[in-house]
Amino acid sequence: MIKVQNYADHAKELKNAVPTEPVLFLKPPSAYVKEGSPIVVPLYTSNLHHEVELGVVIGKGGNAISQTSAMEHVAGYALCLDMTARDIQDECKSKGLPWTLAKAFNTSCPVSDFIPKERIPDPSNVKLWLKVNDQLKQSGSTSQMIFSIPYLISYISDFITLEEGDLILTGTPKGVSAVQEHDELQAGIEDVVTISFRVQRQNQ
Ligand SMILES: CC(=O)CC(=O)C(=O)O
Ligand SMILES: [Mg+2]
Questions:
Q1: Atom 2 of ligand 1: nearest residue by CA position
Q2: Is the pLDDT of residue 3 over 70?
């Protein structure tokens, strides 16, 4: 699974520079969690953030994919949460270390069921939202993305050969915040899907 930083308002709220090229990082398959199972907060973080994101599911692999043909490689979408241990990420950033423990731990990527491509005819203009315990925290549109989906597919495939089943998370809009044990996270793509996950602390 490949991840990017892609919304100027989120970069600003974290006091990061607005990226001029996509910032890429990876999550392993063990990061996936489906509804019915909890998001487990690792013992080593005290500042776990939600980030709601549109996920793009690759149907046809390839490398050096052109922007014009990029959408032919898309099978569909998923609504995803990029759970991020912000305290660990800040520490890694200050030391120039990779973000692996901040981003790639078990259950760090809650996902919806697969959404066929036809259900989102215009992925460049869909509304995403996230609530914590019924309180709205994130509300944005993929129209605010810095880099379009065709650009991301083309850019990534120049460095990493894309394979069928790969999932590209396309970045989060502003409004990220810390979650606590027993919180209920609900998120949605307007008129398409909603998901719901409970937060649980890892056992000592
Ligand atoms: C700073 C980040 O955590 C980047 C990220 O994941 C994003 O969605 O933006
Ligand atoms: Mg993210």
A1: 5
A2: no
